[in-house]
Amino acid sequence: MVDKIFEKSIKKQFEFDEDVASVFDDMLSRSIPFYKQMQELTIEFALNYLQKDDTVYDLGCSTASTLIELGKQSNFDLNLIGIDNSSAMLSRASKKCKAFGIDIKLRNEDLLDTSYDNAKLVISNYTLQFIRPLQREKLIKKIYDSLKEDGIFIFSEKVISSNKVLNKQCIDTYYDFKKKQGYSEYEIAQKREALENVLIPYTDDENKKMILDAGFSHCEVLFKWVNFATFIAIK
């Protein structure tokens, strides 16, 4: 379905409910620049590290698109686990998994309360930004502790610049992108208001510091477009 959620007045904060789930795949492709390329890059780097029967977690898996693509492209069996606290998202994920014939365990759980046993790879695409800073740091530490010694963490986030002028230019460039995808200025303004105090982005340096403080030996940017970035962290 086509994302038209913000064509009408929104009187609540953004949440991953049934309305959002029903248009989520379209929302991703039109709201996040180079989302498909980022996803392909994530899978390419993941397959460089993964071996048969390794366990992969996708945190905030939404409709399971990334895990489905990983399962399709892998030449060996993987233990794929998708975690999300939105039942609406997981319902659609389950249908997609069946349609593509990919075996993925879907868990409706809180990311801070669940376990990541025997993890070789943890993926998080535009999920950390929705977690409050103090809780975010706890989650990163939990991910680090759960990963095998040679494990990796690949995550994508909306980022901000510490330079106010540059940050404004980045936001303007991003809004121009959304307009080219067919979103009106009213829709853009509505979504921005709905996300206020819900989505809390970090700078590149803040993301890297959070990762290294948790114990990871290395973290760097794999891909970046203006204010969207994909990072890889190595334990």
Please provide a written account of the structure.
The protein is an alpha/beta fold and 235 residues long. It has one domain (12-234): 3-Layer(aba) Sandwich (Rossmann fold), CATH 3.40.50. Helices cover 44% and strands 21% of the residues. The protein has 8 helices and 7 strands, in the order ααβαβαββαβαααββ. The protein has a 7-stranded mixed sheet with strand order 3-2-1-4-5-7-6, with helices on both faces. Strand 4, helix 5 and strand 5 form a beta-alpha-beta unit. Helix 2 crosses helix 3. The longest helix is centred in the last third of the chain and has 17 residues, at 164-180. The termini are far apart. The mean pLDDT is 89.
Question: How many strands?
Answer: 7
Q: Reading side by side through the largest sheet, how are the strands ordered? A: 3-2-1-4-5-7-6
Helix content range: 40-55%
**Averaging pLDDT over every residue, what do you get?**
89
Family: Belongs to the class I-like SAM-binding methyltransferase superfamily. Cx-SAM synthase family.
Catalytic activity: prephenate + S-adenosyl-L-methionine = carboxy-S-adenosyl-L-methionine + 3-phenylpyruvate + H2O
Function: Catalyzes the conversion of S-adenosyl-L-methionine (SAM) to carboxy-S-adenosyl-L-methionine (Cx-SAM).
EC number: 2.1.3.-
